[in-house]
Amino acid sequence: MKLDDFRLNLHGKEYVPIIIGGMGVNISTAELALEAARLGGIGHISDAEVHAIADKRFGTNFIERKREKYFASKDQKSKPEVQFNIDELAEAQGLHVSKTMEAKKGSGAIFMNCMEKLTMNNPLETLKTRLSAAMDAGIDGITLSAGLHLRSFELIKNHSRFFDTMFGIIVSSAKALNLFLIKAARVGRQPDYIVVEGPLAGGHLGFGINNWKEFNLKSITDEVLQFLKEHGLKIPVIPAGGIFTGTDAVEFLQSGSSGVQVATRFTVTKESGLPDFVKQKYFQALEEEVEVNTVSPTGYPMRMLKQSPVLQKSVKPNCEGLGYLLDSKGNCSYLGAYYDEIQKGISAANVFIKEKVCLCTGMQTFKCWTCGHYVYRLKDTTNKLIDGVYQLLTAEHVFQDYLFSEDHKIKLPEFELAFA
After folding, report:
1. How far apart (Å, rounded) are the C-alpha atoms in residues 102 and 110?
2. Does position 199 have pLDDT exceeding 50, yes or no?
3. pLDDT at 29 over 60
4. Four-point Cα dihedral 32, 38, 43, 46, nearest 10
């Protein structure tokens, strides 16, 4: 069978059963999400560092204004006074979502990936604003990620689109799902879909650094499907993490899943927001160059390439302009470690923090090369051109290959004479 033999039903509407995951910062661009929607599937945009995305897309200057406002705090170890302007957050989110939705064509949908771990020095108010502004701007759905989101529905239960917007939750166990469902029941709202993310996914993982290898996506997905069956719940389940071929996807749908979420193969498409030279690094990657580490200030393990520039050199924190991982007291583990070194008399040029990285700056500047486990297989999905570089793919090509390939085969694109 082919993946195109199946359809995903959400909110009474049929979709091609492919969801492109929400990769931040702006790797899952509006252009990539729009292609998924045009082709009948579902594409994500991410609101990670949404001010920076708005500045790049629309020529606004949210980041620079915030940096100037809090310039006096630039050498402080703790930054409780560095707050996001809620109105500007809503404006940036609204721009990012509304302009994307206005451009949507086709029968598919556009979702927003919303990370709870973006605490932004004011966790609840900023999360409520991000969710509300996305709904105000007409987003089709919101995927709640990087956290249990036990209070998220409560924050937005009175919004006029609370029941119209499709909501999903990313979990890595039936236990985590149960916790979310208990809280959701208190506001009379179930999720419209459940993304089950396995240990081979890219970026932040919902497993311990010492035990992630003990799990696999198939067993976790089966566990969640069984949990839903035992509780009489009919909620579509979407496995994610390590689904590299259309045949991989078909095997999950034949076992009871409703669709799949995929991302790694779309990082090297022309529509992806990664700079072209970084896409080449992904193509060149070897299996032994992929690692799961604990450098993220969020506390979650993270998968990335060992050669990521963010792992080679520490930078001065830019919390005045960014600061998306500051907790409610204005602290961040990287920020604290950096100024501990400065207080020892080490010059800024020589500071190197091995244990943590400045994730805000690293992601914004594309120097943190997060990836799925199978990034090393990307070179097998395209052509190596005569000038030595790998041919970039189109999102449509990858999408169609997932839909129509069989027997774990991957169709290569038509050969280009020159690298674009």
Report:
1. 11
2. yes
3. yes
4. 50
pLDDT band at 376 (very low <50, low <70, confident <90, very high): very high
Q: How confident is the model at residue 416 (pLDDT cuts 50, 70, 90)?
A: confident
Which amino acid is present at 350?
N
* Residue 136: exposure state from Cβ atoms within 10 A (0-12, 13-18, ≥19): middle
Per the DSSP assignment, residues forming a β-bridge with 239 are: 196
Q: What is the rounded CA–CA span in Å between residue 184 and residue 150?
A: 8
Contacts for 345 with CB less than 8 Å, ≥ 6 apart = none
> DSSP letter string over 112-180?
EEEETT--TTSHHHHHHHHHHHHHHTT-SEEEEESS--TTHHHHHTTSTTTTTSEEEEEESSHHHHHHH
State the Cα torsion 250-105-282-409 to the nearest 10°.
Answer: 30
**For residue 420, is pLDDT > 70?**
no
Helix (H, G, I), strand (E, B), or coil: what is residue 353? coil
The DSSP string of 184-213 is: HHTTT---SEEEEE-TT-SEE-SS-TTTGG
Classify 248 as helix, strand or coil.
helix
Percent with pLDDT over 90 in the chain: 98
Q: What span, in angstroms and rounded, lies between the C-alpha atoms of 114 and 99?
A: 18
Using omega within 30 degrees of 0 as the cis cutoff, is the peptide bond preceding 187 cis?
A: no
CA angle 275, 395, 112 (to 5 degrees): 80
3-state SS of 38-78? HCCCEEEEECCCHHHHHHHHHCCCHHHHHHHHCHHHCCCCC
pLDDT value at residue 419 = 45
Q: How far is the C-alpha of 332 from the C-alpha of 353, rounded, in Å?
A: 13
Q: What is the dihedral of CA 302, 357, 361, 120, to 10 degrees?
A: 80
